[in-house]
UniProtKB/TrEMBL annotation:
Keyword presence, Oxidoreductase: yes
Entries under InterPro entries matching the protein: KR_dom, NAD(P)-bd_dom_sf, Sc_DH/Rdtase_CS, SDR_fam
PANTHER family (alphabetical): OXIDOREDUCTASE EPHD-RELATED (PTHR43391:SF12), RETINOL DEHYDROGENASE-RELATED (PTHR43391)
Catalytic reaction(s) noted: 2,5-dichlorocyclohexa-2,5-dien-1,4-diol + NAD(+) = 2,5-dichlorohydroquinone + NADH + H(+)
Presence of keyword Hydrolase: no
Protein name stated in the entry: Ketoreductase domain-containing protein
Length: 273
């Protein structure tokens, strides 16, 4: 899908990566809606878009379906139907063993990071199918491909985004609607600069060095634009994580040995015990 003249709705648009997407879509002539639970953040990022960009900032709580309905109505009143939906809002929890996590924090994390993505799809995808065109970009994480210890709830929510996105891509492809999943590694944003996110219990000097070398969000945004233009399923922006992921997949593939039930699928197992 070409971007010029399209309407793009971005959640977490007041944050680092959402704002990077907004900038990149604006570079290509898109009309931008920045939606965020902090409307002030969204307004500040809308003001930074290139001169001449048609843009609006909206409040939204992605966990609330009423809030989605209100934001959709406001967006369509200004720009008409939304062509591209970026479900990008997300939160992190502090590094801690899962068994020490407050259950309410687990519920909140899944509500924002996973159910929030579903809510966006439930709000906008039917109209895209009816028009026979559209694209949905869901933000997962490298944690959604390769989980880091002490980050279990976040990883679970981001694995959920991948499963949901891959299934949805199969369902919507026959209707002319694309689905892509973004898997950021460390990228400069409020989340990644906070004390709750980073590569784990690490020497502070090493952590400071990593944070000083984070990717700038505009480059993720440009990768997202390319994925929408070319209908790519996966958006990998940080190739340095490849070897870790290959090791994980090798371990999974190595578990594919003989069937647990001898004779399974050979016709010899019907009465086997
Ligand atoms: N920055 C990274 O290193 C990194 C790495 C992997 C994945 N991610 C993912 O990228 C996405 C964007 O994060 P970011 O790094 O730009 O962080 P960020 O904190 O700068 O932006 C996230 C935005 O989401 C908004 N938000 C939070 N809860 C919301 C809700 N209920 N409804 C609507 N908006 C809400 C916040 O106000 C914030 O502006 C998230 O899904 C995050 O999990 C980030």
């Amino acid at each position: 899908m070409q971007i010029a003249g399209r309407t793009i709705f971005i959640t977490g648009g007041g944050g680092g990566i959402g704002a990077g997407m907004a900038q990149a879509f604006a570079e290509q002539g898109g009309r931008i809606i920045l939606a965020d639970i902090d409307a002030g953040f969204a307004e500040a990022e809308a003001a930074k878009l290139p001169a001449g960009t048609e843009a609006m900032a909206l409040p939204i709580d992605v966990t609330s379906r009423d809030s989605w309905a209100q934001a959709k109505a406001a967006a369509e009143a200004r720009f008409g139907p939304v062509d591209i939906l970026c479900n990008n809002a997300g939160i992190a929890s502090g590094f801690a063993p899962l068994i020490d996590m407050d259950p309410a924090d687990f519920d909140r994390l899944v509500a924002v990071n996973l159910t929030g993505v579903y809510n966006g799809i439930a709000c906008f995808a039917r109209a895209m199918v009816d028009r026979g065109a559209g694209h949905i970009v869901n933000t997962s994480s490298m944690n959604g491909l390769n989980p880091f210890g002490l980050f279990a709830a976040y990883s679970a929510s981001k694995f959920g985004v991948l499963g949901l996105s891959d299934s949805l891509r199969q369902e919507l492809a026959p209707h002319g609607v694309g689905v892509s999943t973004l898997f950021p590694g460390l990228t400069r944003s409020r989340m990644s600069q906070s004390d709750t996110v980073g590569p784990g219990a690490m020497d502070p000097a090493r952590l400071a060095q990593i944070r000083a070398n984070m990717m700038e969000p505009i480059w993720l945004g440009r990768a997202v634009v390319r994925a929408v233009e070319q209908d790519q399923p996966y958006i990998i922006t940080h190739p340095e994580y490849r070897d870790d992921l290959a090791r994980r997949f090798d371990t999974i593939l190595a578990a594919f040995g003989e069937p647990a039930q001898p004779g399974y699928r050979t016709g010899a197992s019907a009465t086997g015990r």
